[in-house]
Amino acid sequence: MKKFVTVIFLMLFAGIEVTAQQFPDKLTMKDIFHETFIPGTRPSFSHFSPDGKTIYFNWSDSATSSTELFQVGLSGKNQKKAPKDIVRNYQLSPDGTKLLYTESGDLMLADADFENERLVVASKGFDYNPVWNPNGTKFAFVQNGDVWISGVEEAYIKQVTNKKDDEPNYSVAGWAGDKIVLSQWDTSEYEEYYFPEYAGTLVETGATRRGIPSRIISIASIDSGGVTEIFDHHGYLGVDVSASGKFVAIDATDPPQKRRTITIFNMEDLSSNILFEDSTKGWMYNTNMEFAPATDRLMFQSEQDGWNHIYTVNPDGSGFKQHTFGEYDIPWASWIDERTIAMATSEVDPGEIHLYKLDIIQNLPTKLTAEEGYRRDFRMSPDRRFIVYNKTFFNEPFDLHVVDTVIPLREVQLTNSVPEAFYEYDWQEEDYIRFTGRDGSTDLSMSVLKPEKRNPNGNPVVVFVHGAGSLQNVYKGWSNNYWREYMFHQYLTHQGYYVIEVDYRHSTGYGRKFREDVTNWMGKYETEDIEDGLAFLADNYEKADTSRVGIYGGSYGGFMALYAVGVSPDKFDAAAGLRSVTNWENYYYANPGYTLPRLGKPDEDSLHYERSSPVTYADSLQRPVILLHGLIDNNVGFQDAVHYIERLIQTGNEDFEMMIYPTERHSFRDEDAWYDEYRRIFEFFNKHLKKS
């Protein structure tokens, strides 16, 4: 095979290829997909206690899908089930002594320990979205889509807005001094689409409205009662108010997500100026913006130089500064204080995320974590001292951890959610590889799992393709999004397969160009990257038989499986597509927010849609495929499977299979459906990849 790749980094040593590793021989397909789950249930952060000393998280201590609320201290001690009546959503007063929250549709006020609870607003409607003013003397809230204000010590209530019945509801975005920043979502231009449901007594239409919203930002004066609209934008935006209340920042991106502006409004006269602009051929990603907690300096993240980095600027445009540099990603950043920013970065390695704190005056980073691993889902404590997050490493499923920003390099594990039975299986540690693609400049990440026994005549290969497109799934840890699939891959190795995965172009964590290369032609570069991964496998793993390759995935991964087998039958011998996009025009109508930035509009950019859709290549399909799809999928509609199968039927293709799951949506719920789906995939690959 022609060699396309140059090795940058490879966790492969002499002798490892010929030594069989011990595998979980007790593992069965039903074990993988039926409850109780072998790796348990991952804890999901819910919220901090008002004093910041306790965290609450959703989890199942029985390793099932039925979760409950638990709590644990920041020391990792005193874990227990949370009280049934715990308040999950509350607003802490500026001085930290009082709480506001909704209970049974009414607004309650209590001390920070939830004592001395009293009813402050009760109405026939539903009262929600309470937001304190800066000095804690009053609060704004929403009732029947309009904004009201109420005193805390002084008993009064006042209506601020009076919308018409056909106008969008208001929400409270924040206070700017004695003014209220209001937001409205206008969805009047949404279109109605249908995802029929068949399993009941009668067929239901499954009607839903889809589109890209418009956002309207207004300023309300509580003294005059006037409401002034300052920003009306079709697309996406974020809003933040400076600590002084003098400035409001609006971070706006257009519907194709190709142009971004950050605009500052002065609350004294509502004058405005644009602080930052960015444009790209692809689409914006991870646009984050936040004022410092005690000053008017604005921090934002941008990929303007090709990688996601941190910038700060003053409201008048002075002091513009880039603080981080280099070919690495910053998936998260937030202020600690007026001169310090907490951030997560991939500077060590794309598959390894560490936390730092950055002094923006001296531009000096201090590393907060030391252990090798992958971290995600970061949450800052109310006092901005502690950061809680999920952490994993190879064959160590995610658990909640915390780091104290005042005491670096002292990482504390808060939960131990993995059942002891998990460690009874001798899970193979995948080879984590960095290599260069055929163009000599694109660096790629790949994981390799090896078969338990090497066959003298070679072992077939299964390629897994992650979904979403914009996602990272090859890193130094247990997969968060595909944990069932990860165990299935271990099972495949026990059945004689190599299993590989490549973070193809379009994946996140590798810079703007890497992600945006696929713009206007999805499938082309992703397929090349996977083919280069197979070439690397053939060159470096002696018994990997790349003349027998199966490819599978779900959603975007299902699209990729069908696309790859359609355009490159010399590299892929069989494909299994789960809930696959086969016709991108269908997905434009179901999810224009995803499809418009990547492919444009179907009526204006028909070439982009045609060459990116697997249904285009179905007429000449040469390899066997199996399609598996939930009938009531309201993300990638069953219509996509229908279009593809109909094309195969009309062209006389007889080498395909199809399975419908009548009560499943995009994300399967039923364990028997999960099992049936993967049993069929396994049998399909055995049929087409194993030598008789």
Features:
single chain, 692 residues, alpha+beta, nine-stranded mixed β-sheet, four-stranded antiparallel β-sheet, 10 helices, globular, disordered N terminus
Number of helices: 10
* Intertermini distance: 24 Å
Q: How many strands appear in the DSSP assignment? A: 43
SSE-based structural type: alpha+beta
Q: Major β-sheet, in short?
A: 9 strands, mixed
Largest beta sheet: strand ordering: 1-36-37-39-38-40-41-42-43
- Average pLDDT, all residues: 94
Portion of residues within helices: 10-25%
Strand content: 35-45%
What form results from the Cα inertia axes?
A: globular
The Cα radius of gyration reads: 27 Å
Low-pLDDT runs: 1-23
| Multimeric organization | single chain
Structure report:
With 692 residues, the chain is of the alpha+beta class. Residues 1-23 have low confidence and may be disordered. The protein contains 10 helices and 43 strands. Strands 1-36-37-39-38-40-41-42-43 form a 9-stranded mixed beta sheet, with helices on both faces. A 4-stranded antiparallel beta sheet has the order 2-3-4-5, with no helix packed on it. A 4-stranded antiparallel beta sheet has the order 6-7-8-9, with no helix packed on it. Strand 12 and strand 13 form a beta hairpin.
Characterize this entry briefly.
This protein has 692 residues and is an alpha+beta fold. The protein is 15% helix and 37% strand.
SSE blueprint and pairings:
Blueprint: E1 6-10, H1 29-33, E2 44-48, E3 54-59, E4 68-73, E5 80-81, E6 91-92, E7 98-103, E8 106-111, E9 118-121, E10 127-132, E11 138-143, E12 146-151, E13 157-159, E14 170-176, E15 179-186, E16 191-194, E17 207-210, E18 214-221, E19 227-234, E20 236-241, E21 247-253, E22 259-266, E23 272-279, E24 289-291, E25 298-302, E26 309-313, E27 321-322, E28 332-337, E29 340-349, E30 352-359, E31 364-367, E32 374-380, E33 386-393, E34 396-404, E35 411-413, E36 431-436, E37 443-449, E38 459-465, H2 483-494, E39 498-503, H3 512-516, H4 524-540, E40 544-554, H5 556-567, E41 574-578, H6 584-590, H7 592-599, H8 606-612, E42 625-630, H9 639-650, E43 656-661, H10 671-689
Parallel strand pairs: 38-39, 38-40, 40-41, 41-42, 42-43
Antiparallel strand pairs: 1-36, 2-3, 3-4, 4-5, 6-7, 7-8, 8-9, 10-11, 11-12, 12-13, 14-15, 15-18, 16-17, 18-19, 20-21, 21-22, 22-23, 24-25, 25-26, 26-27, 28-29, 29-30, 30-31, 32-33, 33-34, 34-35, 36-37, 37-39
